[in-house]
Amino acid sequence: MTDLLIGVLLSASLFALLWPFLFYPLILRALPTLPEAPVAITPPSASLLFCAYNEAHAMPEKLANIAMLKARHSGLECLAFDDGSSDGTGDLIAAQGDLVTLIRGPGRSGKAHGMKQLAARARGDVLVFTDANVLLDGDAIDNLLARYADPDVGGVLGSLHYIGADESATASVGSLYWRIEERLKDEESRTGNVLGADGSIFSIRRNLYPDFPDSVLDDLTVSMAVVFAGKRLIKARDVIARERLVTGRKDEYRRKVRIAARAWHTHVHLRPQLRQMRAIDRFKYASRKIVRWFGGIFILTGAVAAGTLAMRISPMLYMVGALAVALTIWAGVRAKSGPFAALVDIMIAYAATLQGVVKAMTGRTVTTWNPAKSR
């Protein structure tokens, strides 16, 4: 391999790593704004849906949050699916009487299955999806439903604010990543469509809810149905949800592997419809999702290219560089905070995502989940 090819490989790897976080946002900012066109309508009715598994510790605060929301919106329908919890989560929900309509699953069947059960029973014009450990601000429902005054809007995402960013390097990196993600969604929304939602807080018109297998990532599948239907999927900054960050590396690693595996499986399931999207939406989807999923490969190719180039320049340079990398990783693994720990957590995140994608490519997927103990 010539020095030129090595340099090209190294440059291409760095470019691909930086694309979702630097070049893609710059391109989005250069695109024109696509304004909304609201009309005078009566606000639609809404159903709030969430699934839970062994979330007894989060239920008192969650149920109090729901009671506050229903006090402000007497017509708000709330439904919950208990996915075979063994810690009394379902009993805590049932004890609240008619505050929440509870559906108990027969055992572990997964969030996608549970959400389909809830959506089939919901009566609201708009389905609002959230997680069992997520709390909504008091004006979140009002602000969310107001965006449906534009008939072209088929789905609305909220803004997730994480709590506990200073509790560990893992939490700090997760918080930074999510702030970047939120800004990207803001820019995508301003220019047309956001390309996919996460499960913390998003909504769609009930008549757009799709059919899908239990093995897919339901929040991505359901939110993308809005784009496939030719409606706008937008983000509302004033619809605020709050959630505690995962602080343990093992918990975060397992979570990212699970999410990545299901995301790739979902990508394969949606591929025929993805190909039919407008060019701008295909560009957004590839930039924010596909390029990130393979970030681990870009790190590996960049490391190999850098090491090869260093060896060709000087074996001593290669040895010094390798030792510096090893010491940095060693320090980061031992540290609980600081730049070295943050660097290790970033590498772990890329490794977990790549593992999940490879897992899905080999035919394996994950349908159930466990709440993180370090949240």
From TrEMBL:
Keywords of the record: Glycosyltransferase, Membrane, Transferase, Transmembrane, Transmembrane helix
Transmembrane segments: 6-27, 290-310, 316-333, 340-358
InterPro entries: Glyco_trans_2-like, Nucleotide-diphossugar_trans
Name of the protein: Cellulose synthase/poly-beta-1,6-N-acetylglucosamine synthase-like glycosyltransferase
Protein species of origin: Sphingobium xenophagum
Similarity annotation: Belongs to the glycosyltransferase 2 family.
Residue intervals of the Glycosyltransferase 2-like domain: 47-209
